[in-house]
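2.7 Reproducibility. Because tokenized structures are sensitive to small changes in the input, we list the exact sequence used for Importin-4-like, including any N-terminal residues retained from the expression construct. No trimming or masking was applied before prediction.
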Amino acid sequence: MMLSLFSNLLSKESDLRVIDNLCASLCRMIMSHVQGVLLEQVFPALVARLPLKEDMEENKTIYSCLTFLYSHNPVLVQVHFHSQHAQLTAPN
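Resulting structure tokens (single pass, no recycling of outputs):
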């Protein structure tokens, strides 16, 4: 329920500060109960909104979450960051 709400908000929100805060909130949820989060669905949406644009104070939470996830599931993190990097560096 909460994750679908976050997903819906992230897809419709245009305020960059709000998006940054939603990403950090999602990270807090992941770190508090990783088993309750469908990472295969949630993580790509999070990575797609990085780096943060407005609320740089949330970087601490984001990087803590990325470190936490990497220690639990390094393949997930590597695959999605590799994919994101490829999209960012692809010629237009």
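The helical segments are 2-12, 16-32, 39-48, 59-72, 74-89.
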